[in-house]
Predict the 3D structure of the following.
Amino acid sequence: MTGKDLHPHKSGVRYIEVDEVAVGQRIDNFLIRLLKGVPRSHIYRILRSGEVRVNKGRIKPSYRIGKGDRVRIPPLRQSPSRDVLPTAPEGLLAGLESAILLEDDDFIFLNKPAGLAVHGGSGIDWGVIELLRQARPKLPMLELVHRLDRDTSGCLLIAKSRQALIGLHRLLREGKVDKRYLALVAGRWQGGERTVAARLFKRHSDAPSKGKVVVGDAGKRAQTSFIPLQNYGSDSLLQVRIHTGRTHQIRVHAAHIGYPLAGDGKYGDSDYNRQMRGLGLKRLFLHASLMVFQIPGREKGYRVEAPLEPSLRQVLSKLETA
C-alpha cells in the first residue's frame, strides 16, 4: 500500500493520504502503481485535466509527492483485462540486464541505450523503469533518481530503497553529484573551459516553436560547463558538466554559444547533421559518461563510468582519420 485510503466521497471520488513508503515518487508513477487496470493514457489525461489534485491544487505529472499529501482521485473504471502491461520481449530485458554497470543494495547504475525512454507513457509501453520492475519483480521498490532524454545514452541511476532515493535527491539539490557528459559539436572549439549561465524556459504549446526550450531572461536558472577534449578539424569533442538539471539544457546551451550538437534534430544544424549521417551517426551524440558522489555518513563513495557505444566510437575514429 502506498498510502492510507481515506473515506470515499459519495460521488465516488477517493482521497489517498501519502505514507512514508511513497514519499518522493512522481505522481504519475504513484497513480500507475495504485490504479491497477486503468490505462496509462487515461491516467495522464486526468492529470492534465486537473481531475487529480494534491492538497486541493492542480499538479503536473512530474510532481513528487510528500508525506501526508492528500491525493484526490476521480471516479474511475478499472478493467482487469487491462491491468497488466504487455510482457516485454526477452531480448529487450536481456539487453537492459547487460547494460548494468554496477548494482548493490541501494542502487542500480545503468548504461542506458539511446532511443529508450526512462519511463513509459504517451504511447510508450516500456521505459527503463518498467523493464527493470518486470525483470526484478521481487524487489519492493525501484525508482528513477534522475532522468536522461530518450535520445541521450549513458549513466542512469535507479534507487532500490526510499532512503537511497531521498538521500540522492538531497545530494542533487545541493550540487554534490558530479555528472559528466560527452558531446560532439559542430565547430572548432576556441579557448579552454567555458561556463554558460543563460536562463531557459519552455515555449507554450501555442507558440510557433512549441515544445522547444529557449534562452530568455524569464526562464529558470541554468548553468553548464563545457571542457574541450579534442578537436577533429572543424568538429570538437567536449566534456560537459551540468550544475543544474533543466530540460534539454546541454543541447540548448551548446547551440546558444554557436556549437550545436551532432545529430540534434531539434536545436542543431541540418547541414551538419546530414554530414554526420554520412559518417554513420544515426542518433544524438550526447552521452552521460561519468557519475561521482559520496553518501553522507559513509566511507563508501561511487564513481561509475559508462563507455561510449561502438557506433559513437566509430564516428570519432572516422573523424580522426578524415
